[in-house]
Amino acid sequence: MNPSTSKPKALATRNLSAQAVTAAVIERMQSSRSARFKEVMASLVSHLHAFARDVHLSEDEWALAIDFLTRTGQNCSDSRQEFILLSDTLGLSTLVTQLNHPSQGQETEQTVLGPFHREHSPHFPSGADIAQGIEGKPLYISGTVSDAKGHRLAGARVDIWHADPSGAYDVQMQSLEGAMRLRGVFHTDPQGAFHCWSVKPTAYPVPTDGPVGTMLKASRRHAMRPAHVHFMIEAKGYDRLITHVFEQGDRYIDSDAVFGVRDALIIPFTAHRNKTGPDGRVLKGSHYRIHYDFHLRKIAVQKKPMSKDAKR
Ligand SMILES: [Fe+2]
Fold first, then answer.
1. What is the whole-number distance in angstroms between the Cα of residue 157 and the centre of ligand 1?
2. What's the domain range around 258?
3. Contact (Cβ atoms closer than 8 angstroms) between residue 107 and residue 296
């Protein structure tokens, strides 16, 4: 072939310097059919290479990082998500949440999903006790679900989960052998309200027996999260809300290991001495109550792009 008529050559993949390798890798992805894939991967390679150059990554450190990520994957299972925990403890989860759900107006603030959500939680009728035999101080959980203007939403799906009074989730209790406790799905009534019973959670450490724990220890960081209850709320036509409510006054409220606390999500866990709950349930002793009014964001209606004819 005549060299003067041949197609321009792709960047060579030989003899690449520490600087030239970045452009060569990005160039090799240009035939991808997805513009978004190309955009994301080009940025990932650029930043990853820039990071390695910035710290002058040694071969031992590179091997350590490969081993760390390998062990992070090996610590993932149906009941444990070490990669989400890594994302949480590095602040990436909060960054992604805030990029996609910035705080605005009356809508309830989103926060991290965390590593302990489980699919297929049991469905319960209103007022049920999700502790399911786990002992602790009774906690009455109630709330309402509305749109941003305060119009109540009936039939919204409310998924609730939290830790026990010792700070453990059901997935961490070997005696349960995979059974679900302290979690359940409810639906709002015609007035957009829901309520249930459980037991009061406490502050807890994120799991520290895996690679994330090693990273926290090396960083001289504590692993504690302030006491909280998780909510995932879904209603047709509205953005899914993933959030928690945090106990006011918790000692870890300003040093959450996963950077998830927001002012608007801090509420009192009020103690009540009377032995009758708000729904008439008779108790052996005192109990706690929490209440939160959730506001969902309506899904924006996408305007159809103007056709070429319309633009003329
Ligand atoms: Fe949690």
1. 19
2. 82-296
3. yes
Q: How many whole angstroms from 31 Cα to the centroid of ligand 1?
A: 43
The pair of structure tokens assigned to 171 is 């997935």
Classify residue 255 by its DSSP letter. Answer: S
* Angle between helical axes of 82-89 and 211-218 (0-180°, round to 10): 20
How far is the C-alpha of 287 from the C-alpha of 272, rounded, in Å? 5
32 and 112 inside one domain: no
Is pTM, for the whole model, over 0.85?
yes
Q: Give the DSSP H or E segment for 42.
A: helix 35-55
State whether 255 and 107 are in the same domain: yes
CA atoms within 13 A on the CB side of 59: 0
Neighbours of ion ligand 1 (CB under 5 A): 114
Is 225 a domain residue?
A: yes
Structure confidence by residue, pLDDT tens digits, 134-155: 999 999 999 999 999 999 999 9
Both 37 and 147 in one domain: the answer is no
Residue 58 Cα to ligand 1 middle (Å): 36
| Token pair in block for residue 282 | 């008779």
